[in-house]
């Protein structure tokens, strides 16, 4: 029986090649995209699953509350938090400290910065990393010890030769290798090749360390992880520790005026849900995952709707087959099984084809998602099970409704020749076409609005001159080298006449300075401070970046007073301190980051960061903290500047690799999320329209086939080609217009919600919906017109002879 059903299905596929190809193409596109997205989503959700007792392991996160009501959410805490948790709370089983570390290690004649962090002796117990050699209980106990990956071992010492060797850090500090990792888990929110002992910090700066553990409640610069004891309820414990700083850090709160609230973040939620990386870590975005899932479901749904629509539209062709089979004794259950097998066979062929297409599109998909999927990934048992699961889900979705409809035909009606499509069936097909195009139009509208917002952010005035500036990243250069050679580097660069100024600073626009610093201004009550972004700069910062002073003066070169007690602030900071006018702010006392001084100038507000967020208070002073150099040049020959930069770099920093960009490009990197989103929506819109048009083409072909004699008679009676094309097209175009009416309010609502996340945003323009409507109508018209024109210009004699 089963073999006979397969044979009938294959005959049907051969006989109706056009419909089979349309259905197959739509299903292959839908399954391929859904499968690839499912692989990506599965990969994103797999982070940190290797951690033992993950359900009891949490990162302590903090929200700093300022007296003026503003707040800042951080992934870090102050140092006393972890120690207090270990000593005062019996629910805590383990505490682990992690801190950023950026060591420079010399490899032959070149310095290399490896992905690194400091961690205490509980690191291996809490995170479950395995060592190939070394004792995990003691490997990070002593100062100046380090655990390295096998890749680092082979790179610096040779394979299997690392344990016990000395690794020279920053040219001056030897660290003994006490362990070598086994293969590091790739799906971890911590990206590391080297872990140094946390106690090294205390060995290097004992007094600072003593202060931090005792009083550093608001020196929020360590990641604190806890593992709770079994049977401890995380929600109850979170409520218990929320005000820990207020309970044990009263003196710090009293002296600063600030407070901190603590929260628990499950370790397996850090990657996707936190948006905040730990030291040497990386994070994903759950919103992006939801977008991808939605796109995958929509595309697969449209493909299924295509199949259902075409199957039910062609029901009349199979009506006689059903009638004869029922007369000969075939029951309804057998007919349903037959039609489900036909749908299942086509879905199986589409699934096999989609596996091939997935392999062929793997390279661009990897590029788009920053993954490294291979053919081995596709053929992995769990992923093949995933593909089979998609197939199992797809068969009833595509096959059950057509099977139910076909099996319900009454043989008496069919064999009398009076069978026609029911009004309910016709209405359902129209609903399906409207649904397909409504989804497609929503995606088109979404793409246009995202593009509109992105264009708006890229073209707005930023308050500084971002053109003709080369940015040199100094993070790969040793701290001492970059500061000792700073003036020499600037002088050498300035020898090129087209270079007008050079500045060395902590952060240029588009990058973060010292964020979340406490600042106290004259006139505010004791302990009444605000949160600011503190950017250490040099004397040439304003003129190089192109910032505008609206009151006061710039820093004076080599002024001792300016180097120890002068601040520049932006307008937003001026208002936050309560100094109503720029002139009123001059000479006001200001204390921030432990440095006391006075305001010498007010800078016109500018965008230090992208337009996703509002302008925040910014303060600047002359402090040697160089992470980047900015080089402003004149003329129209950037290649000349870059050539001179490379020669100067080789002369001053020969042991380090040069990393440079242009400021306009560097600033645009803040919009990568939006760039990725518009790419996703564009691809989804194209595929959705393609699948919908395949279905529309199939329905148009079927409509033409069923009205062949009518068209022939109309031609004989004098109907023109235009009349016939209009007759055959108007019903379909009406459905597209209805889809536009349905999609417009839905797309407006969703995209308006999306825009609320931007501090500076566009208003949704009416032309977006007009353009989406015109685009969809034109695409639908082109799809329908081929078949319409083809039959309209054909010889009516042939159509009148046909049966």
From TrEMBL:
Q: Does the keyword field hold Transmembrane helix?
A: yes
InterPro entries assigned to the protein according to its UniProt record, in alphabetical order: ABC3_permease_C, MacB_PCD, Macrolide_Exporter_MacB
Q: Which organism is it from?
A: Xanthocytophaga agilis
Positions of transmembrane segments: 21-41, 289-308, 335-362, 384-406, 427-451, 681-704, 732-752, 764-784
Mention any one GO cellular component term assigned to this protein in its UniProt record.
Answer: plasma membrane
Give the domain of life. Answer: Bacteria
MacB-like periplasmic core domain mapped to chain residues: 20-243
Location of this chain's protein in the cell: Cell membrane
For this entry, the protein name equals ABC transporter permease
Q: What keywords were assigned to this record? A: Cell membrane, Membrane, Transmembrane, Transmembrane helix
Q: Name one GO molecular function term.
A: transmembrane transporter activity
All copies of domain ABC3 transporter permease C-terminal, residue ranges: 294-411, 683-795
Query: What topology does it adopt in the membrane?
Result: Multi-pass membrane protein
Q: Which Pfam families match?
A: FtsX, MacB_PCD
Q: Does the keyword section mention rRNA-binding?
A: no
